[in-house]
What we know:
Largest sheet: 7 strands, mixed
Distance between the termini: 48 Å
Low-confidence stretches: none
Helix content: 40-55%
CATH topology of the largest domain: Aspartate Aminotransferase, domain 2
Number of strands: 12
Oligomer: single chain
Amino acid sequence: MPPNPNLKELFLLDPTVAFLNHGSFGATPRVVFEKxxxxxxxxxxxxxxxxxxxxxxxxxxxxxxxxxxxNARGDDLVFVANATAAMNIVARxxxxxxGDEILATDHEYGALDRMWRFLxxxxxxxxxxxxxxxxxxxxxxFVETFWAGVTPRTRVIFISHITxxxxxxLPVQEICRRARAAGILTMVDGAxxxxxxxxxxxxxxxxxxxxxxxxxxxAPKGSAFLYARADAQHLVEPLVVSWGYxxxxxxxxxxxxxxxxxxxxxxxxxxxxxxAIQFAQxxxxxxxxxxxxEILRYAREKITALTELDPICPDSTDWFMQxxxxxxxxxxxxxxxxxLYDEFRVEVPIWKWQDKAWLRVSxxxxxxxxDVDRLVKGVGALLGSxxx
Length: 388
């Protein structure tokens, strides 16, 4: 069946806003949000029973549902608050030594650039960001350019599946394959991948992979996962040491025990994640994603015609699906973003990256070509007055 044309009515978004920034924090359908609140009420009915006697089995079921969605055993992944937390959990347990190198691209998420710089200052390790120039051409060329940064000191490859600043889908499967052959650990930041593109942990082959369920899968805020290959789980230490360490009632998985039980917290967002998966399945999300991609291609055509600047990647689902970044002429990026929202009610991220201004557009099932038209109208009207 075709994608539901009335999906916007199923979300809680302000109908007066052209919301083109799903990529930052996501948005949750009403029915999933209600289940999230239902779980919170279940907890409050009898907190001791829920936390002490029910939650372990409930989380196991939820992990199983998410594991089936990404082709992983439920016991090979744990719920975390967000992808940044997941990468911190892994990185802080690596016992980095002076001179060890972590290889990444220069398109990584700023919070995790900061994580690596922090750890390198403490350990003497080196964070290397291989330059990937845009426009990109082919995945094969990307792999060769990236791999040129590998040296005998490379201990970890850290790479985004879909980059935050440039919204490019990277060929992480081939990178992970080469890294495994070379004995290099791989950490893949899939913050934007879960729900936007099909995921298969076995095919990707990363040692560690994280994804935000609250972004493109539309789960409630605070739901993300950390996957660890079974033979790499011994490297993961608890970021918070609590009752799961030296567990009195061990589950059989040290990885699960140490990461899942870190003290009292609200697990409702995690428990509602299977409902987000169900929502996608019930609304034919493969067709929704395909239609979103076509709307994004429409945006690409309109924006590049307006700016007269070339796209940063080929017109292909190899490189983008529901999110794309576009170059802007020299301008005051903060002022343009502010005025787009204040004067046109368009929510869209505009920022500086590598000393240039960029516009990132996200298209989710609640968006339409009318949202794109409003964006293009606003950018066209404002660019001249916010020129740098």
